[in-house]
Amino acid sequence: MSRDRVPPVGTSVSAADRLPGGRDSHQAGNGRGTAVRRRELLTLTAMCLGVMMTFLLVTATISALSAIQDDLHVGPGALIWIPSAYTLVVASLVLSASTLGNLLGRKRMFCVGVVIMIAGGVLAATADTTAMVIVAQLVSGVGGALILPNSLAVLGASFADPRRRTEVITVWAASSGIGLAVGPLLAGVLLDRFSWHAVFVSNPVLGVITLLVAVPFAAESLAPEGRLDVTGALLGTVTIASVVYALIQGGQDGYTAGPVIAAWFAAAVGAVVFVAVELRVAAPMLDVRLFASRSFSAVMVIAAVSLFGFTGVAVLVVMFYNNVQQLSALDTSWRMLPLFGVYVVSAFLTGRVIRRTGFKAPLTVGLLLGALAVLGLTTVAADTPYHRVWPLFALFGAACGMVISPSTAAALVSVAPERAGMVSGAVNTARQVGAVMGTALLGSLFTGRVTADLPHQLAAHGVPAAARAPVEQAIASGTTSTTAPPDAVRAAIEDAFTSGVHAGLVVVAAVFFAAAVLALTSVHNRPHQNGTQMSTPTTTPATS
Length: 544
Hints:
Blueprint: H1 23-72, H2 76-79, H3 81-104, H4 106-125, H5 130-158, H6 162-193, H7 202-217, H8 230-253, H9 258-280, H10 294-323, H11 329-335, H12 337-357, H13 360-377, H14 390-401, H15 404-412, H16 420-460, H17 465-476, H18 486-522, H19 527-530
């Protein structure tokens, strides 16, 4: 090979610029470089739009639950499965979906996921029964599972330079915050004008736009010499599905209920067998040896913790505004904009500074600031004005931006580019399980605290003893209509709900403080230099 055909390391000059021919060839090279940058930008745009779809559906669905319940007369037990069905499928299949992308093409599987999400959205928009809505969410979950790891893997393969990969991955992670913020706002606007069916039309529209950008511009990539690990895929799916089911159903029936204990047992057995199988196969779905790196394991835990806190705090804030300050879904969404908006900005800026600071500092500082912001929110009461709350939302959003995006990037740049699909599946699984824990565990804690505290609050506010039982029963069934004096009942309910929100926030703060210690003591500052990639076999383009 001629030496002239190999561009210097780190240069941004395209190969066309190095061909002989003087000025014309230099202009041709500039034109080709512009085309490459345009393709990269559009690839990033398409992948971010796909991620926005997956997170927009979560918050839009939650915002539409009350309208769905009123229209279809859904019971509390079935209602929780409308958003949870989607999360269950995404978390269960995301590892297998990344393997399919490695073998069949990451762009191809991403596009298939978008098409499936479009189908799920159309099915939900035309549903007239609770069962049909849940089925539509299950279908959408398959699409979301295909989109999340493969969109991240496409970016990992398209941007091989670790520094550029870090920047684009933080933009990718920030787009999840945009989806979370747009979901309730869009749902609130649509619910003011149309039925709840209109909420589910938004994803099909966004999906069509995503395909129009992704199909012509995103490049295809495959994992070299990959094979389908069928046993690992089945075991991984069963294990994660059991964990997620136990978390969700345990929040409803209690974590000592028979089916929930059976699910925990299945998850434990599945995990042990999964590790044993993956250590023996030649081409594992997930190389569990990666977890021998203390830094890699810590990053996975932090990725789960970040979504645990982000989604958990969002759910608790919605509970507070809906049940304590009696705000509509749209008014609640506007008040949460500082959280989501600052998160997006913080995630983008953190991606720019990581190349100078490394990963340890933003992860540690972000987790500490997040814990402090959440502790500040525990002082919020029913009569607290909004101007005292939004700075805490902004601080928490900034803190999460310093954690969620860098933890994702740190995981991906810890390995060689050809393992991007595998690791993107692993980190997305950790994020999804963390999100489920945020809603299920904190939701269960919130409900338990409200139930336990309500009798004391009713007594403290002078509600007659004969009227307390109907109030407690009304709260347990999801309605506050009672015959007791409304002012006293309302004050008691507000204080009980506030107590439940504060209990959940204290748990989030404690978990964030613990994760900050883990980040400070265990995370390699620059994983692409010191992490697992050093011990991971790689294939360089020059020798392949």
